[in-house]
Amino acid sequence: MTLSELLSNEDLRRHEFPVARDRIFLAHAGVCPLPRRVAEAVREYAALCTQGDQETLLPAPQMQHSRQLAARLLNAHPEEIAFVGPTSLALSLVAAGLPWKRHDRVLIYFDDYPANVYPWMALAERGVEVRFLDARETGRIGPMDVIGQVDEQTRLVALASCHFLSGYRIDWNAIGRELHQRNILFCVDAIQTLGAFPMSVEHIDFLAADAHKWLLGPCAAGILFVRKSLQDFLRPAVFGWHNVRCPNFVAQEEMVLRSDARRYEAGTQNLLGLVGLEAALELLLEIGIDNIAAALLRKRALLVCALKNKGYTALHADVAPLNASAIVTCHRDGANMAALYGKLEAANVIVSLRTDRAGRKYVRFSPHFYNTDAELERVVQLL
After folding, report:
1. Other CB atoms closer than 10 Å to residue 306's CB: what's the count?
2. Mean pLDDT across the chain, nearest whole number?
3. What pLDDT does residue 60 have?
4. Tell me, what's the pLDDT at 61?
5. How far is CA 320 from CA 115, 169, 249, 250, in A?
């Protein structure tokens, strides 16, 4: 199935994305609806699981295939992929597993989504100095903003690939390249870009993304990337039968970890979720991430122009394509944005209502590749 086939055949589109039958869903930066093939994969496996042992009914090669698919999405190696669930957990494992010393420094952005703030703030209890990056506008972080705020004590910088409210997409390659020249580790929360835009971990050390947004997968079926050369450096923060050698399920006197990223998978996994993730990854790769990214940037341009014509202000409306995302967040002085959100919801248009630190309310649009121009035009009419 190609993207053009999907968008030119309404019956096919509604078959593959059942949510499109009754709603215009523009909230993929929140929690996505499942595509048909993802839901069917979970349903079929769940039915199979009524016949016996859930783990043995899932062939071992299938899990390896899922790692290969995730690695393709990141230009990584399968042995660098761990399935640990939520982004919050994956980032917490990175924060807790590094060998910090007192007075080490970590640089974060305080107005990032809390999943990428609290795991690093907690390091203060271990004597790590947590510094907050100063940004000119919400989420607008450039390479020089980062490099100008690190020093010799900075051990790691943790940023989101795209800001969840403003939709500003950072240049993670340029930032990572500069940090590596200074021997500073780089951790990325990629939940707002993975599945929507091409990503490469060439200049990234750690990356986390759950599946329930742009990956179009189930909740708590996320990906953790750990660079192979750092896997002995990043110690697991949790231990169990799956990541420590235990032949015949018998504990050994010496704890020997797995030799790849599975060392971060301590116990029984979310198999239902991972079956769904595999189906979602296959769908995205079938459509093509480059094709998805081009479609999303085009939809963004349509929305930004239409919002401007309606008197709304879209955050970072003027950014270059490198820093643009599929998140379009808007407000209008004097407008009741909560009432607008309610009006859209009553018309079966699903968007997100968000509030910034100052209390200003915004409506956030986040279409995916299967949303049509006709749907966007309908939404604009409702404004």
Report:
1. 18
2. 97
3. 80
4. 85
5. 27, 10, 54, 56
